[in-house]
Specification:
single chain; mainly alpha; two-stranded antiparallel ribbon
């Protein structure tokens, strides 16, 4: 019987070589990037070297976790949280994830990497008003659609909303007002000088506008796209 044999790397499918997690998927999409991060984390938990069977289970675990994250987002947006049928479905996914981890021999999730303060940040949706939640969702959508063309002013506003969500972020301290500070600090939300933070953005935009005037709009935007590698997602650090 002629059984399939492992082909040379150039003859393999893109999914076999790791260039595509799923055949036909756009690796620049938010879905693909999240899946990549989860799979990479699980592979690292397994010691960095896994079999084909283990890799298949790891991909299954990543897909289940992403489905749970989508459900959690839906729960947070619903009045009164999750319904009973939704929680049953969520529990089913959680049990499937647990069994997959048990099959892989992963007893528990690795500890979350600490922030500069040594603490793990926790998001609290009630920190944002209803209008702020809608504004955050709108800004995230615009960021994902526009990528490097997403306004710096809007990026700054999104960073402030995310910091408020976690009630912690990186920014200039109110205590340092009027002083030249080279690096932002890890601070509680209400200790960050947000007026000064946004003023810095406006000052930087004035410099960027002067640069665009010197280069010409077409050359300036072409260079900006190249700087971001034509990636449609722009990172907003908190």
């Amino acid at each position: 019987m002629n059984l399939p044999r492992i082909r040379a790397p150039r003859q393999r499918a893109a999914a076999s070589n790791g260039k595509r997690l799923v055949p036909g998927i756009d690796m620049r999409s938010a879905h693909a990037r999240r899946m990549h991060d989860l799979i990479a984390g699980h592979v690292a938990d397994m010691g960095g070297n896994v079999s084909q069977a283990q890799y298949a289970l790891i991909k299954t675990a990543a897909n289940i976790q992403m489905s749970m994250e989508a459900a959690e987002l839906q729960f947070s947006q619903q009045e009164g949280g999750a319904t009973f049928p939704q929680m049953l479905a969520y529990g089913t996914m959680a049990n499937s994830l647990r069994r997959t981890y048990e099959s892989l021999g992963i007893d528990k999730a690795p500890p979350a990497p600490p922030q500069s303060s040594g603490e793990v940040w926790t998001a609290e949706i009630n920190n944002l008003s209803t209008d702020e939640r809608k504004e955050t969702e709108k800004l995230i959508y615009e960021r994902d659609e526009l990528g490097p063309l997403f306004s710096d002013l809007k990026a700054g506003r999104l960073k402030q909303l995310i910091a408020k969500l976690y009630w912690r972020g990186f920014g200039p301290s109110k205590e340092d007002k009027g002083q030249v500070v080279r690096h932002d600090k890890d601070l509680p939300y209400d200790e960050i000088d947000w007026d000064y933070y946004h003023a810095r953005i406006e000052a930087r935009l004035e410099k960027e506008q002067a640069r665009e005037d010197r280069m010409g709009s077409e050359a300036y935007h072409k260079q900006k796209m190249q700087m971001f590698g034509n990636n449609k997602t722009r990172t907003i650090d908190i």
